[in-house]
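--- STAGE predict ---
source: upstream dedup step, 1 unique chain passed
mode: sequence only
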Amino acid sequence: MTYQHFDIRPQDECTPIHPDLTHSQVRALVARHSEKLRHNGELASVYQSSMKCDWEDYEAQAVRFWCSALMKDRSYSGRPLGKYRGAAKQVCSDDIASWLKLFENAVDECVAETARANTKKCATQVVDCFHMAMIPA
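--- STAGE serialize ---
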């Protein structure tokens, strides 16, 4: 027996955040952002010491996460905050702002100009959620 899958989500929940954004741009964005993180002394040390980061694994998971968030393709399942909560004692608000700035710079380098504002807006919303979960007000 063959089953056919149907997506019953409302249209706005299964449509990419911008029609000009592609999966290849998201993969390039994640690779560039990961490279920027590895070269940032403060953030790289958080990823290495607190999160025991394997960069190859991190990138693979980040691609799935950001494709789910930006492309709405449901390629990621899991609870991303768990790994980051372990690093909460080592992270401050300035670190989170630095992470977002590096991400926005990577967006400028890898994403179609027409899709940049929506991509940055989504990233800011994700980062705000992580910030609230990791650092008490």
